[in-house]
Design the sequence.
């Protein structure tokens, strides 16, 4: 009888424990479901498809890194294709029927390009992504032109400057012909140099203009008398091959760097914003395009510093992200 009572008591206890476990498990399971549900809403929606970017060679390192990060960390089923035809050539591809989704640019869009967008019914959104410094580079063996004044640099690249030899710049410089190099007319960097620095005066005769920035790096690295101009990012990734000229704007030589390249920085006279332009029509039609635009702006400053650009003020970034979120 005692055994039967003992067995009944044990069975009752076991049943009670199972009931408690079931209740507890139910609560835990419910918590997991809520947690998973919350996680699902917090995580970005899985997207697929493609995003097509072309344009500026200057902005290319920034956008290529951004695309890599996005495809690796954010949306592995979205393919972001980044090319570098140059700012002007890129706008031609952007402003076309079934054109690109984004155009990277090292200058602002022109009035005639905006008119073309209106003609095609393309709504364009300008996205400023970083700040860049127009950088003048020389061969590693050049030990005389490591510091130049703003006026001396301008005279070297002006047809009217009449600086054919280094000794024409300063009497104690070598009596050797200056070899000038730069990006060609497809690039916004060329246009910035021509329009903003040289004030639309003719470039020096015989300047060697190239489409590919890597070619410019190679040419200058092999020519002791060379001097070229391009964006700071390309110099920053080739410091082993080139020397950046320190520029005296009137208060002593300033070396281009992420710290000095700012709208109110010491290198400000040669500082410029760089952009990507979004086809808003595509952003409204293709969720991955808008998602990539938002991701780019949210991560712009981190990628800028990784790729040789100066960051933008955080409040400016936030305002742009808010504008893009308004397109949803």
Sequence:
């Amino acid at each position: 009888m005692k055994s039967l009572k003992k067995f009944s008591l044990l069975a009752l206890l076991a049943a009670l424990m199972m009931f408690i476990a079931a209740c507890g498990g139910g609560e835990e399971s419910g918590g997991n479901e809520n947690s998973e549900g919350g996680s699902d809403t917090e995580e970005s929606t899985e997207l697929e498809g493609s995003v097509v970017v072309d344009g500026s060679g200057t902005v290319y390192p920034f956008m290529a890194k951004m695309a890599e990060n996005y495809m690796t960390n954010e949306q592995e089923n979205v393919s972001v294709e980044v090319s570098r035809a140059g700012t002007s050539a890129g706008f031609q591809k952007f402003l076309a029927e079934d054109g690109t989704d984004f155009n990277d640019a090292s200058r602002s869009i022109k009035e005639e390009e905006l008119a073309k967008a209106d003609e095609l019914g393309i709504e364009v959104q300008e996205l400023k992504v970083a700040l860049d410094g127009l950088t003048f580079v020389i061969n590693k063996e050049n030990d005389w032109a490591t510091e130049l004044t703003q006026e001396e640099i301008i005279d070297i690249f002006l047809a009217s400057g009449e600086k054919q030899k280094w000794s024409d710049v300063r009497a104690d410089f070598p009596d050797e012909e200056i070899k000038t190099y730069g990006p060609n007319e497809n690039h916004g960097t060329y246009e910035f140099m021509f329009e903003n620095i040289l004030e639309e005066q003719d470039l020096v005769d015989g300047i060697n203009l190239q489409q590919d920035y890597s070619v410019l790096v190679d040419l200058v690295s092999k020519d002791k008398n060379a001097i070229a101009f391009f964006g700071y990012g390309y110099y920053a990734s080739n410091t082993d091959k080139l020397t950046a000229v320190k520029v005296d704007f009137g208060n002593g030589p300033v070396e281009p760097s992420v710290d000095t390249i700012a709208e109110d920085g010491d290198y400000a006279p040669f500082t410029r914003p760089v952009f990507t332009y979004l086809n808003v029509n595509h952003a409204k039609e293709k969720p991955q395009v808008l998602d990539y635009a938002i991701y780019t702006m949210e991560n712009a400053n981190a990628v800028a510093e990784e790729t040789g650009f100066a960051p933008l003020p955080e409040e400016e970034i936030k305002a742009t992200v808010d504008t893009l979120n308004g397109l949803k």
